[in-house]
Amino acid sequence: PDYGKLVVEKISHEEFVTDSNRVIFKAICDRINKDNPFGIDFLSQELEIGSINKLASLIADSKGKSYTKDDILEFIKVIKEKGMRASEEEIAKMDSNDIKSYIENLAKNKK
What is the reported pTM? Predict the structure, then answer.
C-alpha cells in the first residue's frame, strides 16, 4: 500500500536531522501534497545530483523489502526522536533563549 499521505500527515521535513534529508523529504512531500508521482525519475527534475544520488542509494538499500504501516510509524518515531536531540557542539553554540526553547521542545515531545 501507499503510505505517502500517512507519512506527510505524521512528520514534516523540518524534523529531519540533516539538510540533505530535509531537502529530499520536502521534495517528496510537495509532490505527494499535489497528488503528483514522487518516484526518483520525477524527483530528479527537482533535486540536485547529490540529493538524487543519496535518494538512489536509499532506494537501492530498501529494494525487495516490504514495509507495514507499523514499520513506517516506527521509522517516523525514530526520525522525530533523533531530530529532537542536539549534539554537544550544537548546544555549545546556543544562546540562552535557544537552550530554553530546546529544553521546552524536549519536554513537550516527551509526553
Answer: 0.70
